[in-house]
Write a structure and sequence with these properties.
The chain has 3 helices and 4 strands, in the order αββααββ. It has a 4-stranded antiparallel β-sheet, with helices on one face. With about 80 residues, it is α+β, with helices and mostly antiparallel strands. It has helices at about 1-10, 35-40, 45-55; strands at about 15-20, 25-35, 60-65, 70-79.
């Protein structure tokens, strides 16, 4: 998550990281505005795929919402 923020987030805007417990899951949500570098950097999605594998190992789920301006990732990890 941190490396994606470093590469793609708008350095002039805050990054919101929220963590809470929902039943038998730990939920981690990160929201940020995308910087101009997002359109300039070519991505293979390796970082997000690595996150998906790690979350899957813990019997969790990953959901991504993205537009041209914003990015949100929500991770649910089984406790």
């Amino acid at each position: 998550l941190a490396s994606n923020v470093k590469k793609y987030a708008d350095s002039e805007s805050p990054v919101a990281l929220t963590v809470w417990k929902d039943g038998d899951f730990l939920v981690i949500e990160q929201r940020n505005r995308l910087g101009n570098a997002f359109t300039e950097v070519e991505s293979n999605g390796i970082g997000l795929e690595s996150i998906r594998k790690i979350v899957g190992h813990y019997k969790g789920d990953m959901h991504i919402e993205q537009s041209t301006e914003f990015f949100r990732i929500t991770l649910q990890i089984s406790l």
